[in-house]
Structure formats: C-alpha cells, structure tokens
Design a protein that fits this description.
This protein has about 300 residues and is α/β, with parallel strands linked by helices. The chain contains seven helices and 15 strands. The strands form three sheets. It has an eight-stranded mixed β-sheet with strand order 1-2-9-7-6-3-4-5, sandwiched between helices. A five-stranded mixed β-sheet has the order 12-11-10-14-15, covered by helices on one side. It has a two-stranded parallel ribbon with strand order 8-13. Helix 6 links the parallel strand 10 and strand 11. The chain starts with 10 loop residues before the first strand and ends in a 6-residue tail after the last strand.
Length: about 300
C-alpha cells in the first residue's frame, strides 16, 4: 500500500537534532541503524511486537548486540501480544526481558490503577539517541499504517532513558533493577511527559489543555481515536469561539469500529462549535500529534479517549 508521506530533513532544536518519520519502513531502518551502533545500552519498549519479518529482524539485531556485551532491555505489553506466538516471545538469556502484566490477581480489576496497559513505544540507545511516537513493531505498520514517530539525537534522549528505567525498575522485581544512570538536563525546548496510572496522574492531558488554552491562531490536532472528555472538548470549542482555527484529523475508518462510533458522536458538537473535522482515507491513521500556532508541538503514544 502507498500513501502520501514526506521525507523530511533533520532539524536542530536547541542542543538536540530531531528527525520526523511518517512511514514505518523508513523508521525501522533508522532504528536498526541506531541499534547496530550501540556501545553501552539499548532500551526498547513497545505495545505490540509482531512475530513477523519486521519483528524477527529487530529481535535478531538486539540479540547480536547483547552478545557483544551491550546491555539490552526490552518491555512489551502482555495483553497486546496475546496472539503473538509464545516461541517468539522467548528471548536469549543475554537480553533482559519484561512482559508487562498490569493484572496479576482477579481482584486487581477493581483497582483503576491496574487497568492501564503499557502503550508506550520507546527506543533509547546509549542514552543519547531516542525514538518515540505511535508506531508499533510489525510488517503491517511498515507500509500500511500512517503514523508519526520522532528520533532525538542529543541530551533530551536521556529523559526518555530515565522514563524507561523508572518503569522497568518499578515492574521488574527485586534484584533486576537497572542501575545505569544517564544525566538529564533542563531543556526549555523539549520536555518529556509520561502518564502514571499507578499514581493516577495524567500530565499529558493537562499539557494538551494548557496548550489549547494558550492558542492564538491555530490548533492542528491529529488523533487515531478522538473521544475527548468534557473539559478537553470545551477547551477546543472555546479556542474556536475566540477565533482560533481549530482542525481535527482522524481516520475515517480506524481499526476499532467502536472507537469510530464514539468519535462520530462528537462530530456534530465539534462542527457546531466551529471546529473543523477531517477524515483521513489513504490508510489507517494512527498518529497522535498536536501543533499550536506553528510554535508548539507534541507527539507520542497517548490517545484522546
């Protein structure tokens, strides 16, 4: 399948170099290149990891670096990979692997902190190169899904490493913690935000609302599953009411029909409130991005549902 996508140049923002990817095959090639250059550590975290050609190639490169003495840690969500063959989810002992399970006991379903899956998609190499965005790992996403991912080369990658290590150390069990530390720096251009279901804190949502409230000219929001809560929707409508050009891009048909039904329930209210809604039809649109006034942007893995 082919769909419109750009090959953008890398740009420098502060002390970091940023490269956007909108085509999975290009992203996977860059990820493999970064892995092959690793000298100290590789941290990989993903929601879905298919046992297909893309998945196996990535696994082979990780195993090769682990054999060379690089510290390789991988996390994937147990629930999201139920249909992936068990044999594929077996890793050599040289790779530290965590199959994340939020529910360990039947009564955990009563604890809202345990209802969150590990939906993040991270790759961090040597604490200096990081990848973050919406792409899962598999053949399907290489050519048939339109998503957005970012490569960071520079000190901000240490923040991604810290986020991975924090999650690993909280979930891995006693005696398996990561002790390597990459020094983080305050950066006025780039910040890393993570939701924390166990603490019931959701700074990503708050970040969206703050940026929307500050918009003066335009809000360009792309999300795979547009099911906003009342406060977020009211913030978008308030921006439109004060003259901001608010545009929402969603997949016309996503991979979750229930999400499509729910999203369409908001379209009338959005249109009546001055928000323009666009449906993407070239491929499955899975991106989660927002640009405000052409000056502020966020991307990652958090859906608006």
């Amino acid at each position: 399948m082919s769909f419109p996508h750009l090959q953008l140049d890398e740009v420098r923002v502060g002390e970091n170099c940023l490269q956007l990817y909108g085509y999975g095959r290009d992203l996977y090639a860059a990820m493999l290149e970064a892995i092959d250059c690793a000298r100290e550590s590789i941290y990989l975290e993903t929601y879905i990891w298919k046992g297909d050609t893309v998945g196996r190639e990535l696994k082979e490169h990780l195993a090769k670096k682990a054999e060379q003495g690089v510290d390789v840690y991988v996390i994937f969500d147990a629930f999201a990979n139920l249909v992936v063959p068990r044999a594929f989810k077996e890793f050599p002992s040289s790779i530290h692997m965590l199959e994340y399970q939020s529910l360990h006991r039947p009564w955990h379903v009563l604890d809202p902190r345990r209802l969150a899956l590990d939906h993040r998609k991270l790759l961090v190499v040597d604490g200096s190169v990081g990848f973050i965005g919406g792409y899962n790992l598999g053949d399907l996403y290489a050519t048939e899904w339109r998503d957005t991912h970012l490569r960071i080369r520079g000190p901000a990658a240490a923040d991604l490493a810290h986020s991975f290590v924090s999650f690993w150390n909280r979930s891995c069990g006693e005696g398996k913690e990561i002790t390597r530390h990459y020094v983080r720096h305050f950066d006025s251009f780039i910040t890393v935000r993570s939701n924390d279901a166990f603490r019931l804190t959701f700074p990503i949502r708050d970040m969206y609302i703050e940026a929307i409230d500050r918009a003066e000219h335009s809000i360009l929001l792309t999300n795979a599953y547009f099911v906003p809560d009342h406060i977020l929707l009211e913030a978008l409508k308030a921006a439109a009411a004060r003259g901001v050009d608010v545009r929402v891009l969603v997949p016309w048909y996503s991979n979750h029909i229930v999400a499509d039904w729910l999203a369409r329930g908001y379209f009338t209210e959005c249109l009546e409130g001055g928000i323009r809604v666009f449906g993407y039809t070239y491929a499955m649109l899975h991106a989660k991005t927002c640009t405000v006034d052409g000056q502020w942007v966020t991307l990652g893995t958090a859906n608006l549902d």
